[in-house]
C-alpha cells in the first residue's frame, strides 16, 4: 500500500536522509523514533508530498488519501475547535459533522464549547490535529509527535484510537522521540544518521 524506496534529502550541505526505505500495509501501525533533528518530520513531509526528495521514490495507490499531523498546524485562531475542523473538512468537500463531534467528545473536547482555539492548551491543539488527520477516513495517517501535551487519560484514549484505526485497516505511522507503552506497533524503526534501523 505504501512503498518508500531509497529516499535521500539534504538541506543546503547537510544530509538529513541518506537512504530511507520501508513499506506499510493496511492495518499496520509503524513507529519511527529518533532524536531531535534526525529527520522524522522530513520523511512525513516527503510522504505527504509537501516536500520533494532529492532522489528516491514513494508509491501508493492513486485513490489513497493521506491524513497528517506534522509540526504545529495553523488554525483560525478566533474560531472554535468545531468550526475549525468543520471548515477544514469542507475544503475537501468531505465533512461528516457527526463524526467530527464524536471524535472531539471522545477525546475530551466539548464540541459545543465556544472557546476560541487561541485559548487552547498545547494538548487540546494536539487533539485537534489528530482529529483532523483521521476525520475524513484517510487511508494513511501520519502523526508527528502526536502525544505532545496529552494528559494520562488522553494518552489512553489515543492508544485506543490507534487500535481502532488499525481495526479499520488504516496504515498509521507515528514518529516520536520515545516509545509509548501499549501501542499496537507492527514495526518499529529508529532513525539514525539518515538511515532507518529496524528495531525488531
Ligand atoms: N526547510 C528546511 N530548511 C533547512 N533545513 C531544514 C528544513 N527542514 C528541516 N531542516 C533540517 O533538517 C533536519 C531534520 O529536521 P526534522 O524536522 O525532519 O527533524 P525531526 O526528527 O522531525 O526533529 P524533531 O524531533 O525535533 O521534531 C534538522 O537539522 C533541520 O534543521
UniProtKB/TrEMBL annotation:
<keyword id="KW-0813">Transport</keyword>
<dbReference type="InterPro" id="IPR027417">
    <property type="entry name" value="P-loop_NTPase"/>
</dbReference>
<dbReference type="InterPro" id="IPR003439">
    <property type="entry name" value="ABC_transporter-like_ATP-bd"/>
</dbReference>
<feature type="domain" description="ABC transporter">
    <location>
        <begin position="2"/>
        <end position="200"/>
    </location>
</feature>
<keyword id="KW-0547">Nucleotide-binding</keyword>
<keyword id="KW-0067">ATP-binding</keyword>
<dbReference type="InterPro" id="IPR017871">
    <property type="entry name" value="ABC_transporter-like_CS"/>
</dbReference>
<protein>
    <submittedName>
        <fullName>ABC transporter ATP-binding protein</fullName>
    </submittedName>
</protein>
<dbReference type="InterPro" id="IPR003593">
    <property type="entry name" value="AAA+_ATPase"/>
</dbReference>
<dbReference type="InterPro" id="IPR051782">
    <property type="entry name" value="ABC_Transporter_VariousFunc"/>
</dbReference>
<dbReference type="Pfam" id="PF00005">
    <property type="entry name" value="ABC_tran"/>
</dbReference>
<dbReference type="GO" id="GO:0005524">
    <property type="term" value="F:ATP binding"/>
</dbReference>
Amino acid at each position: 500500500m505504501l512503498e518508500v524506496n531509497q529516499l535521500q534529502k539534504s538541506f543546503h550541505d547537510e544530509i538529513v536522509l541518506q537512504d530511507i526505505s520501508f513499506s506499510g500495509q493496511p492495518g499496520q501501525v509503524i513507529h519511527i523514533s529518533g532524536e531531535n533533528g534526525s529527520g522524522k518530520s522530513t520523511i512525513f513531509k516527503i510522504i505527504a508530498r509537501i516536500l520533494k526528495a532529492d532522489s528516491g521514490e514513494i508509491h501508493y495507490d492513486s485513490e489513497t488519501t493521506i491524513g497528517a499531523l506534522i509540526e504545529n498546524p495553523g488554525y483560525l485562531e478566533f474560531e472554535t475547535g468545531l468550526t475549525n475542523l468543520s471548515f477544514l473538512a469542507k475544503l475537501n468537500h468531505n465533512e461528516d459533522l457527526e463524526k467530527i463531534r464524536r471524535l472531539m467528545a471522545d477525546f475530551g473536547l466539548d464540541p459545543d464549547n465556544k472557546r476560541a482555539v487561541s485559548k487552547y492548551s498545547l494538548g487540546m491543539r494536539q487533539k485537534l490535529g489528530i482529529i483532523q488527520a483521521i476525520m475524513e477516513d484517510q487511508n494513511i495517517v501520519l502523526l508527528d509527535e502526536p502525544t505532545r501535551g496529552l494528559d494520562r487519560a488522553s494518552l489512553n484514549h489515543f492508544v485506543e484510537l490507534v487500535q481502532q484505526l488499525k481495526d479499520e485497516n488504516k496504515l498509521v505511522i507515528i514518529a516520536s522521540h520515545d516509545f509509548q507503552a501499549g501501542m499496537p506497533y507492527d514495526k518499529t524503526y529508529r532513525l539514525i544518521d539518515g538511515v532507518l534501523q529496524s528495531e525488531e
